[in-house]
Amino acid sequence: MKILVTGGAGFIGGNFIACALRENRADEIVCMDKLTYAGNMHTLSGALKDPRFRFYRGDIACKKDVEEVFRKESPDAVINFAAESHVDRSIAHPSVFLKTNVSGVGVLLDACRKYGNVRFHQVSTDEVYGDLPLGGKGDAFTEDSPLRPSSPYSASKASADLLALAYSRTYGLPVTLSRCSNNYGPFQFPEKLIPLALTHILRGEPVPVYGTGENVRDWLFAEDHCAAIRLILQKGEPGRVYNVGGRCERSNLEVVRALISAVGKGEYTFVADRPGHDLRYAIDPSFAESLGWAPKVPFEEGLQRTVAWYLSHEEWWKGILDGSYRAYNKEFYGSKR
Ligand code: NAD
Ligand code: TYD
Fold it and tell me: What tens digit of pLDDT does each residue of 76-130 get?
């Protein structure tokens, strides 16, 4: 099977490509990525040495870029990881979220229709359901929970979900969706809580904790998310949504304190809260589990592995913080054919 992975130079897409090549899960992987600030060719350095892998620089919201890749590569399936993914950025600059996260998905869906009813998987998020009250028990989001997005980011992801499901119903396009909780692990851009906290701790700066730090997220190691997506691609029922999560709720303060303890140093400071800050996420992943999926990496182990990775890959995150990764990305501009 030849899989087109969009957004593969980012955090979860990069993990997906590494796992798929390592475990011989695909005959060929084609990656298309716009290389925005969040895309990093260093993340793909292992894959680029593999003859089963090809990279195209392109924008999912650009029909010409997308059709060029479809014409050259004729993928059997598309997994769309490409997105603007950071809530804080969506609050500051919402319009690019609409372009990539909504229009971009529309362009991919049209290409899937045009080039032979290609299997399409949309990587979505639990944030489309909005938030839950703090302290609740047994109230996790199911696939039938109403969509109540709070931020421009989550609203754009919810819009894309609806579009993808409409293409399934109206045109019979074989579409599945996964809505996953917060991911963590190697290669995560240091704007998200865990890598931001780690890079602050390692540089001797206090970790900024929004509001009171009581907000709760449901954490999953990125490789477990990738395994769920692979299984949904193989066994998922077209037209269906699969919630994915680790049944692992932690408050932000608990996470930051665990990181400080794992590194053996560090401090945090409370800062102004995020506008519209979602209180709590909790996912019921029973439907994905019914396919035979289960998370393999407990939070404490995953956090240790993540800390060890950031400690041993200083050049990766320092290259982001000093901006030098952008020059490396530029070397690949020529790969756009
Ligand atoms: P990321 O920001 O690390 O990576 C996104 C990638 O998409 C980058 O490589 C970027 O260059 C690329 N990209 C952005 N706009 C593009 C465009 N117009 N055309 C082509 N490529 C483009 O994001 P991530 O954390 O890896 O998230 C991947 C997907 O998973 C997203 O769709 C996100 O909504 C979803 N998700 C993320 C989490 C999480 O905790 N990170 C949880 C659930 C779902
Ligand atoms: P984030 O990693 O941005 O993911 P999301 O908002 O999509 O869940 O944030 C995770 C939680 O951590 C969220 O409640 C906001 C909080 N947070 C901080 O307290 N400080 C920070 O510097 C960041 C980036 C996030």
Answer: 999 999 999 999 999 999 999 999 999 999 999 999 999 999 999 999 999 999 9
Ligand nearest to the backbone CA of 269: 2
Instruction: Say whether pTM exceeds 0.90.
Output: yes
Ligand 2 nearest-atom number relative to CA 209? 19
Place of tokens 């869906």: 109
315 tagged catalytic: no
Is residue 126 part of the annotated active site? The answer reads: yes
The two structure tokens encoding residue 152: 């421009």
Contact assessment for residue 271 and residue 208, using Cβ atoms and an 8 Å cutoff: yes
| Ordered domains of the chain (ranges, CATH) | 2-187+220-246+277-297 (3.40.50.720)
Could you list the beta-strand ranges (E) of the chain.
Answer: 2-6, 28-33, 53-57, 77-80, 119-125, 175-180, 182-184, 207-210, 216-221, 241-244, 249-251, 268-271
